[in-house]
Structure prediction request, 674 residues.
Amino acid sequence: MTEREEIQQLRKEIQIHNHKYYILDQPEISDYDFDLKLKRLEKLERLHPELYDEHSPTVRVGGSVTKNFEHKNHPSRMYSLDNAYSYEEFVTWYDRCLKTINNETGREHIEISCELKYDGASINLIYENGKLSSAVTRGDGFQGDVVTSNIKTVRTVPLELRGHFPAFFEIRGEVILEKSEFERINSERSSLGLTTYMNPRNTASGSLKLQDSSQVAKRKLTCLPYAVAGENLPFKTQLEVLESLSRFGFKIPEHYKLCKSLDEVQDFINHWAERKNNLPFEIDGIVFKVNALEDQEFLGATSKSPRWALAYKFESENAITRLVDVVYQVGRTGAITPVAQLEPVLLAGTIVKRASLHNKDQIDKLGLCLNDRVYVEKGGEIIPKIIAVVSGESGQNSCVNFIENCPECGTKLIRIEGEAQHYCPNTEYCPPQIKGRIQHFISRNAMDIEGLGSETVSQLVDEGLINRIEDLYQLKAEELLVLDRMAQKSVDNLLEGVLKSKDKPFAKVLFGIGIRHVGQTVAKTLAKQFESIDQLSCATYEELVAINEIGPRIAESVLSFFALEPNQITVERLKQEGLVFEITQTNQSQRVQLFEGKNIVVSGVFDNYSRSEIKQLIEELGGKNVSSISAKTDMLIAGNQMGPAKKKKAESLSIPILSEIEFENKLNNLTDIK
Ligand SMILES: [Zn+2]
Prediction:
């Protein structure tokens, strides 16, 4: 055998063993023998540079260096997918697809291909006559970076396709890093004293852009293909595409499923929502595609995404990011809140840069140090929280030490016994406390003063026009008009808003004056129980804790509020201004009538109430909570994110639908009667 023949034979053999090892997981020879063959081939190729072939398996080990990655247009555009975050959104999409197909073809069924949504970096692989000619990152969908030499080191990307294939076409896939490989890389880096990587996805996409392809080769990336593009392709369905890709020599995880009914789809979602963490790689959802490619043609695409596909994202994801800094905010009650500043990270569809840390105990419990990688999770709150430090991280960096003095006024912080929070005790003069109290008073959930916003309050305090809540009622047009950004119209609005606030119900005023720990619900309870500020201010500790929702912490706080002279003055002045400081018997008895005998469904998420608060109010007002909509339902109270199916049903039965604001207005109308 000549050396030329030996080169040809080795190339062929290594390709076959590569496929058996990486794609089929059925190695036939030992790693040692495999390496021997590869080394022999490398040696022969060095002796015969004239026989160089860019598709030889020796390119797998890398070695070429790319300083600047060229840009290249994708032959066909790489669309992004529309997202759905609930099963109901999926159903809406499904119904829309079915309707279009029904109009086009008269068919009454569509099949849906369900595939896992791999969390990595998208890649476009272009094959000409079965050989990988270029690999391009997704980029903006029209144009990406050419990373062919790096992709050639990915063992699961065939350099040459097997079997019968189209002469020219594109294969779309996701380049991912398996979790075990990610952990291996990180532990190697940390033993070398290098910063560890954030998560498998970022590491995978970062790896594609490394300049030295031999470094990429060491990272053991994997490519999982999911689509093809090109003209006059022979495939009829998405499933056939996946099966063909497998025959061409790609690795296709066997987790896809063809679903013929909505029930099957729901089962698929539930199955993977539970098991997603058991996979060797990370997924962030499920991709649904209308299975028949002909149907996909009928459905077409919008300017951004195809109408025949949908990415379903799992709920309440958590993400890993890095703690950059901790800053301290001073609230209106002087409470100090530590806030984590994070490296921006995508979490459940939004970019997260901050997370709340609650208090010193929380920081100590997490063992938080600057530069740590941390898990952030979005619970029900708007601001996500840090749930843990990635194991093995802590202790290497400088730990977070809680501050001892107020960052705003320098006063030494105190901690009330039995409470987790630190406070700045400089209530009267600490600037954020002065501003915070007034901003809270005017806020939407409290007095809701139109024409006056947080920034204006800040401006008025800075100008020395107001210092305390009651000063708002002394504001005069002539002193406002001279200020920046204060035209006649805004001054009129502001003063009118202040005047109108005198009609707000007692519970809102009570919430607005800002007693520590007295939130909206507690304010309502206190207003209802004591009926006036005079009775509340005389209440004893025993009387307070005797009320169902009032614990020792709130009781103490109410007592100490009324014990302080500045607060007594505020209440007295506001009374003189004519604010509402009591509820009357008439509106109490009227309230009971409001929903009497009515069957009410509450659905969705609300801005100012929890769902159980609304349900409780309904019961207090004589209504009955029912869970599903039927002809017997009298009313639907609809929050945000209510399922479209529910809404549709209510509309079809002509059941009145009340928004949160309409519901609140109904309540306020009652309590406004004096
Ligand atoms: Zn302070």
User: Anything to note?
Assistant: The longest helix spans residues 3-23. The CA atoms of residues 224 and 253 lie 8 Å apart.
